[in-house]
Amino acid sequence: MSAIPGDVDTDAGPPMTIPLRHFVVALAFLVAGVAVGVAGGRGGHLAQVHLLLAGWVCLTIMGAMTQFVPVWSGVALYSRRLAALQLPLAAAGFAGLAVGLLFGVTSVLPVAGALAVAGVWTFVYTVGRTLAAAEWDVTTVHFAAALGFFVLVTSAGVGLALDHAAGVLPVVGLTRADLLLAHATLAVFGAILTTVSGALAQLAPMFTQTDATRVGEALQRAETASYPLGVLLLAGGRLLGRPTVARIGALLVAGGLAVVGLLLARRLLAASVEWTPMLTRYAVVALSLVVWAPLSAWAWWQDPLAYGALFGHPALAPLLLMGAVGFVVLGTLYHVVPFVVWVHRYSDRLGFEDVPMIDNLYDDRVALGDGLCLGAATALAVGTGLGPVPAWTGLLVGCLALVGAVLFAGNLLGVLVEHGPQSLPALVGGRFVEESEP
After folding, report:
1. pLDDT tens digits for 202-240?
2. 3-state secondary structure (DSSP) of residue 162
3. End-to-end distance of the chain based on CA atoms, in angstroms?
4. C-alpha to C-alpha distances, 371 to 19, 22, 70, 282, 382, nearest whole angstrom
5. What is the pLDDT of residue 106?
C-alpha cells in the first residue's frame, strides 16, 4: 500500500469534490489535446499546446495545490467558494483559447484570455492566502514562486491575445515573437516546473522512504534560491532581446533542473519500498531531466534567444515536455486520485473492516499499458529530432500517445466510478453543500 504520512492533516484540505473535479476536467483536456495533435491541421500545434500545458497540466496543478497545500501545512484552505470557482473560469478560458487558435477565430482570444486570467488569479489568491499562514520550507517557497509565475504568464498571455485581435504590442515597443518566447518560458519553466520541483521535494522522500544527505540538502538549498531567479532572467532576456541576461538565466534553469533530476534519481535508487506506477513514472522524470539539462545548457549557451531552443536543446523538447512534465503529472495523479478517494471513502473503516489498498483502486495492467504506450511515444518523439525518420513516425507517435492517454484517463476515471461516492456528471457539474464555507 502506498505510504500515508502520519504528519499530514487531511481534515485541513477542501472537500473531495474540489480537487477531483479539477482532475476529471484536466483528463478531458489531456485526451482532447493528444487527439488534436493526431488530427493536425491549421492552428493545431498552438491549440494542442494550450490544451495540454494549460488545460491538462495547469488544471491538475491547480487541483493538487488546492488539496495538498492545506494538507501539508495543516492550515485550512482560505476559501472553499473561491477554490470551487477557479475551475470553471480557468477551464472555459483555456478551452476558448484552444478553440480560437485551432480555428483561427482571433476575436475569441481576448474573451477567453480574460476568463483564464480570472480563474488562475482566483487560484493564486486562494492558495497564496493559505500559504501565507503556513510554515515555510523548500516546497512552500517553490509554490509561492510558482504562484508569481502564474500571474506573469497569464498577463503575458493576455498581451498575446490582444495582439492577435488588435495588434497592440508595437504600441508598447514589443514584438509578438519576443513576448511569445517569454510567455512560453514563464509557463513551462516558471509556473509548471517550479511547482514540480517543489512537489518533488516533498513527494520523493515521502514515497521512497529515504533520508536526505548533507550534500543533497545543500544542492536543494542552492536550487531553491537560484532556479526562480534563473527563470526570471531567461524570460526577461528573451522578452527584451538581451542574450547575455538570457544566457545567465538559462544556465541557472538548466542547473536547477539537473539538481532536481539527480536528487530524485538518488532517492529512487535508494528506495526500499515496493515500486508503484507513481515511482516508475518518476524514474522517467529523473532520467529525462538528467539527460536534458547538460545538452540544453550547451544549446542555450550558443543562442538562448533562438526559437528552436525555446525548451532547451532543439531535439530534446519532447524529453522535457513529455518525459519530465508529462510523466511527473502522470505519476502524481496515479497516487493523488486514489489517495483522495481512499481517504474520504475508506480511511474511517480501516481497522473495522476489510478495505482495499490505495494501489488496488486502479488496474495495474492498464497502468502498465499506458506507461508503455506513452513511454514509447516519448522515445520516438525524441528520435524524430535526432535524425531522419520515416514519414509515418509522427503519426505513430500521436497514435501511441492517444492510446496511452485514453488508457490512463480511463484507469483513473474507473477509480471514481467504482469507488467515488458520486457519479461523474454529479462530480463535474453538481453543486455541493459541503463546498460552502463552514
Report:
1. 999 999 999 999 999 999 999 999 999 999 999 999 999
2. helix
3. 33
4. 24, 22, 30, 11, 16
5. 83
Return d(Cα 214, Cα 65) in angstroms, integer. Answer: 28
**Three cell numbers, residue 213:** 544527505
Residue 6: which residues within 8 A CB-CB, separation 6 or more?
Answer: none
Q: Please give the backbone phi and psi of residue 334, each rounded to the nearest 5 degrees, phi first.
A: -70, -15
Residue keyed to cell 472553499: 80
Look up residue 319 and give its DSSP letter: I
Q: What is the Cα–Cα distance from 340 to 20, expressed in whole angstroms?
A: 8
What letter does residue 191 receive in the DSSP assignment? I
Rounded Cα distance, 189 and 152, in Å: 12
Residue spans of the domains in the chain: they are: 10-435
Distance CA 84, CA 344 (A): 18
Say how far apart CA 376 and CA 361 lie, in whole Å.
25
CA distance 282 to 320: 13
Lookup: cell for 234: 531567461
Tell me the residue type at 229.
Answer: L
269-289 b/e (C-beta count within 10 Å ≥ 16 → b):
eebeeeebbbbbbbbbbbbbb
CA distance 197 to 369: 27
CA neighbor of 137 nearest in space, from 202, 64, 195: 202
Q: Scan for cell 531567461, then name that residue.
A: 234
Three-class DSSP category at 353: strand
Please write the tens of the pLDDT for every residue from 85-123. Answer: 999 999 999 999 999 999 988 888 889 999 999 999 999
The Cα 409–Cα 26 span in angstroms is 10
Q: Is the distance from CB of 86 to CB of 64 less than 8 angstroms?
A: no
Residue 90 and residue 59: Cα distance in Å, rounded?
8
Q: Is residue 122 a contact partner of residue 85, using CB atoms and an 8 Å limit?
A: yes
What is the three-class DSSP state of 350? Answer: strand
**What single DSSP character describes residue 6?**
T
* Residue 99: predicted pLDDT: 94
pLDDT reported for residue 171: 67
DSSP codes, 30-88 = HHHHHHHHHH--TTHHHHHHIIIIIIIIIHHHHHHHHHHHHHHHT---S-HHHHHHHHH
Which secondary-structure segment (H or E) carries 372?
Answer: helix 364-386
Fold of 10-435: Cytochrome C Oxidase; Chain A (1.20.210)
The grid coordinates of residue 290 equal 538528467
